[in-house]
Design goal:
Elements lengths: L2 H8 L14 E4 L3 E7 L3 H6 L15 E6 L5 E10 L2 E7 L3 H9 L8 E4 L5 E6 L3 H5 L13 E4 L2 E5 L6 E6 L1 H11 L4 E3 L1 H10 L36 H9 L5 E8 L10 E2 L11 E8 L4 E8 H6 L12 E3 L9
Parallel strand pairs: 1-11
Antiparallel strand pairs: 1-7, 2-5, 2-6, 3-4, 4-5, 7-10, 8-9, 9-10, 12-15, 12-16, 13-14, 14-15
Length: 332
């Protein structure tokens, strides 16, 4: 974390960490890291790596994208945005040390520089019906659609998907301090776990080291949340992803669920279903967070097992209650 920002946060109110919902939440997002990709060939380079069309990433629009290995399994998931000629890939900070050198290996002779920009900028989040009013003093206009971006005075504002207004602000420390100090009079500082809960409820998968190279994009619903382009052309793993879309039959997909458990489910935890005949098991946890009365989670589950509604957290664990995602599977 940026040292100046860390010292600033240490002087502020401590975040709520009990997993309870907050009507107006203010989040430090330093648990995310940033990879910067810049140079004359940056767009072309990323176009050959990401599952989504990087030509659509502009100063007015961000997108989600996966980065796959040659077998079409996702190494990472990113939120992608742009400032000037530089592209930024946001992903959990704990994943950066493994991702950065691996992505850099593909640069070869391209005129591209890939670097860790995690400490260069601060990221904060605002969630709730209060968010727009708190941001209006700093932006002449607010983005109206999910994934839309507004840039002003060196600040980047992204409206995020979800059932409630949710924004991410990215920028230099002095300006983010001002926004934080203005917002904290009305908003409650909240933990990174609550932000992850909002991501879970929005049906947005986050890949952690425990689930790296476990899922093809369609299993994680990336095609349903504008995270995959099937018209952009070739990228690493594209043949497998395209074959699944046009020739294969999807047997697993990502579900939103609730579970009553004494222990917190972890990314990569195995799921169990009595009738499953798959040698790969019934499914795996993608992410899970406390919601006050148990845990809400995203999990990639065999479709047949999920439809029978008998999926459990481990062979002798509690049963998952499948919930409705904020988007439809029918878009497939």
């Amino acid at each position: 974390m940026n040292r100046e920002w860390s010292e600033f946060l240490a002087s502020r109110s401590k975040p709520v960490t009990d997993g309870a919902d907050i009507n107006c939440a203010l989040n430090d997002l330093s648990h995310y890291g940033l990879i910067r990709v810049e140079g004359e060939d940056a767009e072309q380079f990323l176009q050959g790596q990401m599952t989504n069309d990087m030509r659509q990433v502009t100063e007015d629009h961000s997108n989600l994208a996966g980065w796959c290995n040659a077998k079409g399994r996702m190494i990472a998931s990113f939120r992608c945005f742009r400032q000037g000629e530089s592209y930024y890939l946001q992903t959990p900070a704990e994943a950066i040390p493994a991702i950065l050198p691996r992505l850099s290996m593909y640069v070869l002779r391209s005129k591209v520089v890939v670097s860790n920009a995690s400490d260069d900028w601060v990221r904060i989040g605002l969630t709730g019906n209060c968010a727009e009013a708190l941001l209006q003093p700093f932006f002449e206009e607010l983005p109206e659609q999910a994934n839309s971006v507004q840039q002003q005075d060196g600040l980047i504002l992204i409206r995020l998907p979800g059932s409630m207004p949710r924004f991410e602000v990215i920028g230099p420390v002095p300006q983010l301090k001002e926004i934080w100090q203005t917002a904290e009079g009305q908003a409650q500082p909240a933990s990174s776990e609550l932000w992850s809960l909002y991501e879970i409820r929005a049906g947005i998968p986050t890949l952690y080291p425990q689930t790296r190279e476990s899922f093809v994009p369609q299993m994680a619903n990336m095609q349903l949340i504008d995270g995959v382009s099937f018209t952009k052309g070739c990228y690493t793993g594209q043949e497998v992803v395209a074959r699944m879309q046009y020739l294969g039959k999807l047997k697993r997909r990502m579900y939103l669920a609730h579970v009553d458990s004494d222990t917190a489910p972890q990314p990569g935890d195995d799921l169990f279903a009595e009738g499953s005949t798959s040698g790969q098991g019934a499914g795996k946890i993608v992410d899970a967070q406390s919601s006050g009365d148990g845990y809400e989670l995203l999990a990639i589950i065999e479709i047949a097992s999920a439809e029978e509604n008998q999926v459990k957290l481990g062979e002798s664990g509690p049963r998952l209650e499948i919930l409705n995602l904020p988007y439809s599977y029918s878009e497939e």
